[in-house]
Amino acid sequence: MAGSIRVKLFGVSFFRTLSGRFLVLTVVFVMLAEVMIFVPSVARFRQDYIMSRLERAQIASLALLATDGMIDPQLESELLANAEVYNVVLRRDEVRQLVLSSPIPAPIHRTYDMRDPSAWELIRDAIACLLDPQERIIRVIGAPVREAGLLIEITMSTAPLRAAMIEYGLRILALSALISVVTAALLFLAVRRLLVAPIRRVVAHMTAYAEAPEDVRRVIEPRSDILEVREAEEALRSLQQQLTAALRQRERLAQLGGAVARISHDLRNILTSAQLFADRMEASADPAVQRAAPKLVSSISRAVTLCESTLAFGKAEEPPPRLTRFLLAPLIAEVVESEQMAAGQNVRFVIDVPKTLSIRADHEQLHRVLTNLVRNARQAIEATGRAGTITISAGEEDEGWWIRIQDTGPGLPMRVREHLFEPFQSGSRKGGAGLGLAIAAELVRGHGGRLELARSDESGTEFVLHLPRDLGAGDG
């Protein structure tokens, strides 16, 4: 029982392979080609069979004419039997003459003219003969050999003709099957050698590389002489080299990050102690100390904030967003309300969001993203000491939703725009760690969307947040 199951499973798995399917397709296509050859071949065989009977009948009739019609009835029967016909009519000099004759066992079923038949007529008549198992008597008209008359007619039975056609057809089919098997076997071996083997080599390299991607020795070396396979090997080698380099870079960054985290942890403790002493210095009666103490406290506070931000970013493992449907206007109103409390009189907020606009996102993560963007805009305006406006608008499009945050601040410096969403790179605000936009962009990417800088110049800065529509959830 187990053996039969294994055989069945092997058969199923074999026909799911490239070589197995190619073998089956080869056999099918060769058999189709042989069938296309078989029908004309059988039709040709029928034509040759009938023409040979016409020639035999003509020879028999010429033997009778050579004796001036004086022939023994037994010899006449032998001539007709040898020609496998019942009657022979030879037309010479516009005179139709019944040369040889014998009793016909049945009425004549049909007459065939073999003097100039078309290919379609030969194929049609051959198929009709094969499909009709009943013995028929047919009349055949042909042209005499070597112009020995105008035409010759014979009557004959279809039974011997059909039997000979079947025997010939079986031989053709057997030969076709043999050709199909041999051709399929040769093509099967060729495909395994030229195509399947290189593909398996590529797969083996991929498997070996996956086990130790940091090992350069496992990077594939293109050597196939098949153009398409070699292109695949070269593309795989390029991918493996890039991945190996990225893994090494990631490992170095991870080690560096661990070192930075340890340094930041120890530095934070040191700075915390220094901050305590600085706080006490503020109570000193010395005017010089009183003037320097606030600056010292501010510098130490920024250093502590930078250490804490670095540690938080290193430990951050954002969970995947929990997508829910909610109205966007209340969320933006909540963000603006919290920022208005921290903003001065010079900052004005404008909200242009439809009250019925509903989006699908993670409520908490989107709150963090918008808070970060609005806070950056507020701080940019406050840094100028002039009045400014923050405009928050949103809308819906075919692909999803967009949220735009605009401010009338001074714009971002060119050096900041080049590394805007990279951690520790984009902080343009004095004392900033440069992590806010990096975290915001990461949260938006988790939604499958994107956060982009649409504009930043002397008239202000504009960020656009794109969130895709999740059609799979039925919210389209």
TrEMBL record:
Annotated SUPFAM superfamilies: ATPase domain of HSP90 chaperone/DNA topoisomerase II/histidine kinase (SSF55874), Homodimeric domain of signal transducing histidine kinase (SSF47384)
The protein's Enzyme Commission number: 2.7.13.3
InterPro entries attached to this UniProt entry: HATPase_C_sf, HATPase_dom, His_kinase_dom, HisK_dim/P_dom, HisK_dim/P_sf, Sig_transdc_His_kin-like_C
Coiled-coil intervals: 229-256
The entry's keywords: ATP-binding, Coiled coil, Kinase, Membrane, Nucleotide-binding, Phosphoprotein, Transferase, Transmembrane, Transmembrane helix, Two-component regulatory system
Keyword Calcium recorded: no
Catalytic activity: ATP + protein L-histidine = ADP + protein N-phospho-L-histidine
SMART domains: HATPase_c, HisKA
TM region positions: 22-43, 172-191
GO molecular function, one term: ATP binding
One Pfam family hit: HisKA
Histidine kinase domain boundaries: 262-471
PANTHER family according to UniProt: PEROXIDE STRESS-ACTIVATED HISTIDINE KINASE MAK3, SENSOR HISTIDINE KINASE
Record's protein name: histidine kinase
